[in-house]
Amino acid sequence: MMGEREEDDDIEEAWLQLRPMEPLPSQCCGSGCSPCVFDLYHQNLARWEAARASKDRSLLHGPESQSCPSKLNPKTFVAFCISAMDRLTKDTYRVRFALPGNSQLGLQPGQHLILRGIVDDLEIQRAYTPISPANAEGYFEVLIKCYQMGLMSRYVESWRAGTIAFWRGPFGDFFYKPNQESSPEQLPWSYQEKTRFGHLGQDLIKELVSCCRRKPFALVCGSAEFTKDIARCLLCAGLTEDSYFLF
């Protein structure tokens, strides 16, 4: 009887070691991703509970992915190699990641990716929107601003060409249609509070800058004339030249 009880205890301990670990708050980027790291945790926990109840460890493994190893996946982090890293300002980097062959990232406007980093044995995740053209072949680029006390900033500043970083995505379901939105109520709820309508001139730029809780970093994309006008408005609103990026 004693031997059987010890064997049962060993089996129970083995199952407990296989139980998925609940993510830390730092592992959620807070961008409303679907699935979130907590969604994935609950999916894995349900799979573990079913496997434990039936005493079948093979149920712990989900269906095998048939996708290319370097193809984005919203549920699993995929490795991408840094092919180039340019320091644009003292705290801002443009980083290029290689894609296999002449493949394209294929993101839509408004979509973003999640980057995973580990600093001091703590896993952290942050959301970034690629700045490369949607039809760029063989690569994608992100612009990352680093902060003095930022954990992800420490991770990014350790990068060099050849470093492997892990991304998952894409996320975001706000697909912009020109001249279709005329009021905040027509936007997804998560965009309503932070969206402004009107001619993008000096007054609106000042309003956008003043509503930020801390000094913002602006990404401006458009024609040469448009970016020149917006840069002038940003300077008049109190930003410095190292606080915006034109492309």
Descriptive notes:
By secondary structure, this protein is of the alpha+beta class. It has 2 domains: 21-58 and 72-171, Beta Barrel (Elongation Factor Tu (Ef-tu), domain 3); 194-246. It has 6 helices and 8 strands. The chain has a 6-stranded antiparallel sheet with strand order 4-3-6-1-2-5, covered by helices on one side. Strands 7-8 form a two-stranded parallel sheet. Strand 3 (112-119) and strand 4 (122-128) form a beta hairpin. Helix 5 crosses helix 6 (224-236). It is elongated and about 75 Å long. The chain starts with a helix and ends with a strand. Residues 63-69 have low confidence and may be disordered.
Q: Which class of secondary structure composition applies to the elements?
A: alpha+beta
* Helix content class: 25-40%
Give a short account of the largest sheet: 6 strands, antiparallel
| Global geometry | elongated
Query: Considering the protein shown, what is the CATH homologous superfamily of the largest domain?
Result: Translation factors
Adjacency order of strands in the biggest sheet: 4-3-6-1-2-5
What pattern of helices and strands is seen along the backbone?
Answer: HHEEEEEHEHHEHE
Number of helices: 6
Radius of gyration: 23 Å
The pLDDT mean sits at 78
CATH architecture of the largest domain: Beta Barrel
Please state roughly what percent of the residues sit in beta strands, choosing from under 5%, 5-15%, 15-25%, 25-35%, 35-45% or over 45%.
15-25%
By CATH, the topology of the largest domain is Elongation Factor Tu (Ef-tu), domain 3
Uncertain residue ranges: 63-69
Number of DSSP-assigned strands: 8
Q: What is the CATH level 1 assignment of the largest domain?
A: Mainly Beta
Number of domains: 2
Oligomer: single chain
Distance between the termini: 74 Å
